[in-house]
Structures are given as C-alpha cells and as structure tokens.
Amino acid sequence: MKKACYIGGEWVTCAEYSPLYSPYSGQEIAQIPQADTHTVQKAIAAAEDATSVIRRLPAYQRAVLLEKISILMNERLEEAARIIAVEAGKPIKTARGEVIRTIQTYKFAAEEAKRLHGETVPLDAAIGGEGRIAYTVREPLGVVGAITPFNFPMNLVAHKVGPALAAGNTVVLKPASQTPLSALFLAELAEQAGMPAGAFNVVTGSGAVVGDQLVTDPRVRAVTFTGSPAVGMDIRNRAGLKRVTLELGSNSAVIVDRDVQLSEVIPRCIFGAFAYSGQVCISVQRIYVVQELYGEFVRRFVAEALTLRGGDSLSEDADYSAMIHPAETQRALDWIEEAKQQGARVECGGKVMGRMLQPTVLTGVPADAKVSCQEVFGPVVLINPIESVQHGIKLVNDSRYGLQAGVYTNHLGLALQAADELQVGGVIINDIPTFRVDHMPYGGVKESGMGREGVKYAMEELTELKLVVVKR
Ligand code: NAP
C-alpha cells in the first residue's frame, strides 16, 4: 500500500519510497514516502500561506474543527487502534487506551481554544504609569514544526497538533519513521473535518532530512519535539532563536515506604514497568523499597511479572509484544548483561522469545550500571532496597533525568518532603511516575527536557505574549 504526504490540503506523492515493516511479524505493511528537501519546502510554504487564514478564524470555529477531529476519531476508534498495534507493535488493548486518550486530547484542545486569553496589568502601580490601561493578549507564533516519536503515535501527535491549532498556528508534522500511518490517518480526519488547506500538513521521511529542515528553516517559528535526549539537544543547538519545546526521556523511579498496601502498589508498578514493553518516557525503571518490605515486594512482584503474556500485538491476549526494532532488543539485552557482570541478579525474564523481550526484573543493580543511570526504554526494571524515604529521594535525584517520580507513603510529612526535594517535573504521591492524564502540566527538568505540554500549557509555549498600553 503506497502512501502519500498531506500538504496544502492535497495528497502528494514523492520520488522515493521506503518499506515499513511490522515490529512483531517483520512483514512489510506499507510503502512510505521519503520526502526530499523540495517537498518539505512545499509543506512549509503551504503552512505559511495558511497562517493568515487560521489566525483570523474566530476561536469558536477553531474549536469546532478540533471537536470534529475528536468525533471522527471516536467513530473510527477500532481502526485507529489497529493502526497503532500494527505499526508500533503496541498490544491492541493498550492501543485502544491510547486512542481513547487521543480523542480526549483533541476535545481538551477544542475547549482550550475558547479560553486563550491574557490579563489586565495595573500600570498605575508604578510611578509614571498612571493614566494608562494595559492588557496582554496571546498571539499565535505562525508555523509550528512538530517532530514526534514512535511510542504514542496518536496521542503525542495530538499533544502538539491540538494545542498548536487551538492557538491559531499552522503545523507541519514529521512523525517518527516507524509510525507514519497514525499521522496520515489523522490527516484524513483533518481533511474530513474541513481543516483549511495548509493549516495541517504531514511530511514523512527521515529525521536527518525532514526534521533537520523544520529545525533550520526560518519560516518555522517554533519546534515542538518529543523524543530522545540526544536528538532533542541537537535540535536545541541548531534552532537558533526559534521557540523550542523538548519532551525527552527519563529513568523514572518510584519509592515505596513502609505501611503501604502491596496488593495495590505491586499491580501499579507492574503496569508502570511493563506497559508497552517499557517503551514509555515515564516507564518505571527503578523501584526503591524500604528494607523491611523488600523481600516480600520482590517475591510478589516477580510472581506477578511471570503472569504477563507475550504475543502478536493484534491479539486480545497479549500484555506485551515485540520491541520497536530488533536492534533495540539487542541493546536492552546488552545492558542486562552488563548489569549481570556488575553483580546484578536476574529475578525473571532476560530472554527473547521470537521478537519479544520478556519482562525482566533485576536486583542488586549498582547505580552506575546502564540499566540504572541511562534510559532503558524496554521491559526492564530494577528493585533495590533503601533505608528510608529520604534515602530513596537521594537515589531518585542521582540522575541526569527528571521527568516524574512516584512516592508511596502514608506519612504526610514524608510525602511533602518528597514533593519539595525531588528534582522532577511532576511528583506523584501514592501512585507510579507513569501516571498521566492529558490536561495536566507535563514535562521534565535536567535532561528530560524544557517546556510543558498538557493542552493549556502547550498553548502557552506556542503563543507569544503581546502587551497593549492605552493612554487615556
Ligand atoms: P528519537 O529517535 O529521538 O526520534 C524522535 C523523532 O525525532 C522522530 O520523528 C525522528 O525521526 C526525529 N529525528 C531523528 N533525528 C532527527 C534530527 N537530526 N533532526 C530532527 N528530527 C530528528 O526518539 P524515539 O526513539 O522515536 O522515541 C523514544 C524517545 O522519546 C525516548 O527517549 C522517550 O523517553 C522519548 N519520549 C519522551 C516523551 C515525553 O513526553 N517526555 C514521550 C514519549 C517519548 P526518525 O524516526 O525518522 O528517525
């Protein structure tokens, strides 16, 4: 099946195509256009031409367009979930959950389109400011370049496209090479919703060609990127004075204090560690458990991990499937091996069945092993003992990353201390760091990124504050 890019409201073929393979079966599933610089230029020009149309649309009409996308996606929910399952190897149950969230994200964007406003500024608070009225407005930036990863190909795209359009910008989207079909599906919905030509464009192809041009072309006013820290930092270095939002990786951790209900904590930690084979930016990678619960926690956690079932991503029974690429599976295996060499114990997993890495639990992992201090982005979790919650906070903070952290405790004082001291973008008390709903502010500190998403917050990143002063 030969696909086409979506540019200026038209489906555009390219000179070059590449096969797209299913992560689970290795079978070819589509032929994807590999846009060259000329095609990217065309998309940026179309988006620039559409800026005057979109910024003049009243807020209620922008809201209607986004609402229509949400409604159309709801009507084709199952089809959308199957696209994700096939191209990303995401188990169909998990893929459906992503589509349900995506529908909500566009709905939030429709609602927020009506709430974009500035404030009045009391200028007479300053000597010399009297006799003037001042207010701010939030103006769209213009063309937004959106570059997205493979792991939530519908919802993380929605977190960029929804807020950008809600705020009156136009968008050129470059999806991850492994997950272009979700983005092209969205283009179909946008077209059906009546999106003005050029307001939303999808250009498929490599990061080096398409991504690079979005980052360097002066007509693109903002780059909103979700992906790996290495690519994110490179984008930041090349983007000059463009607005840049970076949602990057992490090695997220959860702290488990004494006196908690393990029957509640363990299933959540299993979900956090192994949902979509750990290929989630806020996946639970490190679990720190107080000494007195440690033995029981490991025993019960391993028993539960062993009940997870691997299989075809389209099977209703599959809890996990293949990782995104065999090279990624091999990297995770190498890191497990390195931890073993450094004295870690494999409590379960550590083997590959077909293209699937089994859920893997490690204990006794030293802090400098890659599975602890780098982002595994695979179904691998370590469980280490701690003396106290304070000790756990130190270990969580001993990281280059800082996206979200979870703390299970029944002690209000410790919860508040963790909230104060954890160096992350979000502290989740009595749940895992993997908790996210789509309107909350979300983003990281340190090498986990800069800027915030969550529809309202992303709109702040994608607008410029303008001041108006009126002398009476
Ligand atoms: P990735 O390899 O960094 O790719 C992300 C996107 O960047 C893809 O579209 C990729 O295109 C593009 N790209 C690659 N090189 C580029 C360049 N030189 N210039 C511009 N764009 C370029 O990340 P991934 O493997 O898809 O996703 C996994 C990473 O995303 C993990 O680190 C994860 O933690 C992070 N993530 C973070 C969040 C968050 O919200 N904080 C959410 C999800 C994922 P190609 O596919 O064509 O290479």
Describe this structure in words.
The chain has helices at 37-56, 59-75, 77-88, 92-113, 155-166, 180-193, 207-216, 229-238, 262-274, 291-305, 326-341, 370-373, 389-397, 412-421, 455-461, and strands at 5-7, 10-12, 17-21, 28-33, 120-121, 132-140, 143-147, 170-174, 200-202, 220-226, 243-247, 253-256, 286-290, 345-348, 352-353, 356-357, 360-363, 380-386, 401-402, 404-408, 426-429, 445-446, 449-450, 463-471. It is α/β, with parallel strands linked by helices. The protein has two domains: 5-248 and 448-471, Aldehyde Dehydrogenase, Chain A, domain 1 (3-Layer(aba) Sandwich); 253-437, 3-Layer(aba) Sandwich (Aldehyde Dehydrogenase, Chain A, domain 2). The strands form seven sheets. It has a seven-stranded mixed beta sheet with strand order 14-17-18-13-12-20-21, sandwiched between helices. A six-stranded mixed beta sheet has the order 9-8-7-10-11-23, sandwiched between helices. The longest helix is centred in the first third of the chain and has 22 residues, at 92-113. The chain starts with a strand and ends with a strand. Bound molecules: NADP nicotinamide-adenine-dinucleotide phosphate. NADP nicotinamide-adenine-dinucleotide phosphate binds at residues 147-151, 156, 174, 176-177, 206-208, 211-212, 215, 226-228, 231, 234-235, 247-249, 281, 375, 377, 403, 444, 449.
